[in-house]
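Researcher: We plan to redesign the surface later, but first we want a full-length starting point. Tokens attached.
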């Protein structure tokens, strides 16, 4: 299955992946209207300090502990993509506590959100990948040994 991978040695720490993600998931057709003068809630985020930065995103684990831990049954793994049913999420933050990658966070309305590979928007590919100027974020299939 294709997944989002980060080549941290190429990450510039520019945060463009965050802005492209927030825009792609906003449901709006104009980036300025979607993001200007607003706090953004991207499903990917840049971490790090000084010269080492990297993007943190859901790994879509083969045996995701967040799915097992969700008390509301809001998180599921369908066809290898870990998704959140926004109508079921109660915002208890259990998934945040158990995720070993720190990939989940509350959105603007308190409902949990995470990368869902832009499958529900019109991008065609994850917006963080297409918006990365240095190609530090890739969407590809890799073997388990890589």
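Model: Full-length starting sequence:
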């Amino acid at each position: 299955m294709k997944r989002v991978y980060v080549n941290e040695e190429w990450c510039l720490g520019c945060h463009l992946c965050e802005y492209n993600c927030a825009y792609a998931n906003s449901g709006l057709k104009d980036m300025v209207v979607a993001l200007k003068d607003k706090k953004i809630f991207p499903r990917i985020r840049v971490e790090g300090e000084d010269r080492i930065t990297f993007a943190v995103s859901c790994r879509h684990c083969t045996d995701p502990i967040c799915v097992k831990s969700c008390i509301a049954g809001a998180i599921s793994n369908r066809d290898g993509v870990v998704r959140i049913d926004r109508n079921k999420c109660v915002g208890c933050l259990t998934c945040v506590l158990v995720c070993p990658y720190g990939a989940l966070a509350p959105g603007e309305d308190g409902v949990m959100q995470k990368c869902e590979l832009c499958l529900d928007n019109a991008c065609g590919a994850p917006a963080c990948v297409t918006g990365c100027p240095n190609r530090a974020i890739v969407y590809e299939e890799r073997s388990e040994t890589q």
